[in-house]
Amino acid sequence: MIKILLFADLEEKAGQREIDIDSTAMKVGDIRKYLVEKYPQLTAIKSALPAINEEYAQDDVEAKSGDIVAFIPPVSGG
Amino acid sequence: MGYKKLFEITEKEIIIQEVVNKVIDRNAGAINTFIGTVREMTKGKKTLYLKYDAYIPMAEKKLQQIGLEIQSDFPDAHVAITHRIGKLKISDIAVVIAVSTPHRSDAFTASRYAIERIKEIVPIWKKEHWEDGEEWIGDQLEKTPYPSGKPSKEDLT
């Protein structure tokens, strides 16, 4: 199980912050594609930066079961 | 002195002095503070209030990373940053940065660096609420963030 976290606009569009994917290993880029297929309203996920276990990661990195993969939309703190 | 959390996301009102107190140091000759507040007018649009949200554990880690980046440039610097989330009114304090260094110039530079860096890598988002709508705000720097890098000198001028 890989846990997905969505924030801000993505969270609102998906209607939830957390999504579980029943997979033992999946590349971040494939997770992104999977999410857009399942939730077509998440088009903005294209401009989100992925993070695995609270550290920014690239699309070619593989997430494993137990990992938390977050999609970080452009930030606006400060 | 008790345990001090130097890099913090909070839902409570930020007490400026508490952040400043965390960087007091006998070898410091300067403490610079940056206080970010909620602005009413943005590009002619009137904000009623803001809501901030964050990926809290990662945001606190990234604030800490900013502190370490500052200390790699200024080893004697002490850095504390608190960012508030939740619903904020106009003029409420959203973020307080305090940096102490032996000499004032470094404290100014580091404080400026910290706020610019927050807007690049720290997973915090604000939603502006107007009379006629609301929107999550993103990419205020109008450029692609680069989480592992640093802003160039030009970004800080």
TrEMBL record, chain A:
User: Where does the source fall among the domains of life?
Assistant: Bacteria
Span of the secretion signal?
A: none
Q: Which InterPro entries match?
A: MOCS2A (IPR044672), ThiS/MoaD-like (IPR003749)
UniProt record similarity statement = Belongs to the MoaD family.
- Spell out the protein name for this chain: Molybdopterin synthase sulfur carrier subunit
Q: Give the organism, scientific name.
A: Evansella tamaricis
Q: Which gene encodes it?
A: moaD
From TrEMBL, chain B:
* Stretches for region Disordered: 138-157
Domain of life, per lineage: Bacteria
Q: Name one Pfam family in it.
A: MoaE
What InterPro entries does the record tag this protein with? Answer: Mopterin_biosynth_MoaE
Q: Which PANTHER family match?
A: MOLYBDOPTERIN SYNTHASE RELATED
What protein name is recorded for this chain? Answer: Molybdenum cofactor biosynthesis protein MoaE
What organism is the protein native to? Evansella tamaricis
